[in-house]
Amino acid sequence: MFGLGEVRDREFLAHGLMNRNWRLETAVGTYAVKEITDVPLPKVRRNLAVLADLARERLPVPAPLPADGGELVAEVGGHGYCILPWVDGEHVQGTDLTLDQVRDLGALLAGLHEGLRRHGPGPVPGQAPAATVRDVAEADRAAVALSGRLPTNPVTDFDKAATEALHDRRGLLARHVHARPEGEVPAGPYGWTHGDFQYRNLLRQDGRVVAVLDWDRLGVRPYGEEVARTAQVQFGVGGVLDLDRVAAFCVGYRSVIDLSEGDLADAVKRLWWKRMTDFWQLEFYLDRQDPAFGEMFLTDEALLNWWTDRFDEVQAAYAAR
């Protein structure tokens, strides 16, 4: 189907959080095989079609291998699969990067945004996409509902910690009820963005990024939203944000795309509020019984409290030039 010839070795990669992946050694080369489980196949086909154009611009993007007839996603037994060239490298957490590497990472994200401006999968809407701003009452109801799904008399350490975290979050929401961002249209420029630009989707060799992976969430968003989220995910480790690296990342990005201080401040506040009113990690844990999501919930809860206590310091780091 993909013209790979004889399969000589196959290895299942167990570290993916969403999709299932394999490393495949064949007669014609080594490839990554991905079974798509959480994104509609038409959207995956649309997204994959962009990668070849980005790769031709020398951006570190692996171009997908077409199947017979040029199809980028093959359906077998009701499942969708795509194949990309295997790229050797390692996933390096953002806090393990030097400040120069962090600045380069910010510039790379801006370069991808510029590439997507030229090669996005479709026109960009004439108005910035709206972003739902959850109110405190709705978030509080969600916290109560999740508390009801945890044991009334917690036995495990996680159940005890999660119950306490939900109680504390309700108090945090009550104290910051007036900090809800105004309006549902974020500030600043927008366009096609990667959607999950974080270390698990970046491969490095000799200190530089050689592959940006997992384009399932390619979509139109404010650039500030992706900058804010990327810095938080890359440099929010162990319940704290590395503000020096947040600042270096933003400096690198703004050396290519000059987001204003106000645009970034709006994006960061909206991200903070989204974290304040969202419980997706705990929902995933309860729905899937996957302990990885439980750990993420508790770590992100610690970060939310740290961030809230230092809100102005965090805003200043994002505003760095």
What does this structure look like?
The chain has 321 residues and is an alpha+beta fold. It has 2 domains: 7-85, 2-Layer Sandwich (Phosphorylase Kinase, domain 1); 94-131 and 178-318, Aminoglycoside 3'-phosphotransferase, Chain: A, domain 2 (Alpha-Beta Complex), CATH 3.90.1200. Helix content is 46%, strand content 17%. It is built from 10 helices and 11 strands. The chain has helices at residues 41-56, 99-119, 136-149, 157-175, 223-235, 243-254, 261-277, 280-288, 291-309, 311-318, and strands spanning 7-13, 20-26, 29-36, 74-76, 79-85, 190-193, 202-205, 208-212, 219-222, 236-237, 240-241. The strands form 4 sheets. A 5-stranded antiparallel beta sheet has the order 1-2-3-5-4, with no helix packed on it. The chain has a two-stranded antiparallel sheet with strand order 6-9. β4 (74-76) and β5 (79-85) form a beta hairpin. α6 packs parallel to α10 (311-318) and α8 (280-288) runs antiparallel to α9 (291-309). The chain is globular and about 60 Å long. The N and C termini lie far apart (50 Å).
Summarize the topology:
Blueprint lengths: L6 E7 L6 E7 L2 E8 L4 H16 L17 E3 L2 E7 L13 H21 L16 H14 L7 H19 L14 E4 L8 E4 L2 E5 L6 E4 H13 E2 L2 E2 L1 H12 L6 H17 L2 H9 L2 H19 L1 H8 L3
Q: Overall 3D geometry?
A: globular
The CATH architecture of the largest domain is Alpha-Beta Complex
How much β-strand is present in the residues? 15-25%
Total domains: 2
Low-confidence stretches: none
What's the rounded overall pLDDT mean? 94
Number of DSSP helical runs = 10
- Strands in their spatial order, largest beta sheet: 1-2-3-5-4
What is the CATH class of the largest domain?
Answer: Alpha Beta
Structural class: alpha+beta
Task: Indicate the radius of gyration in whole angstroms.
Answer: 21 Å
Number of strands: 11
Order of helices and strands: EEEHEEHHHEEEEHEEHHHHH
The CATH topology of the largest domain, please?
Aminoglycoside 3'-phosphotransferase, Chain: A, domain 2
Biggest sheet overview: 5 strands, antiparallel
How many angstroms separate the termini? Answer: 50 Å
User: Helix share of residues?
Assistant: 40-55%
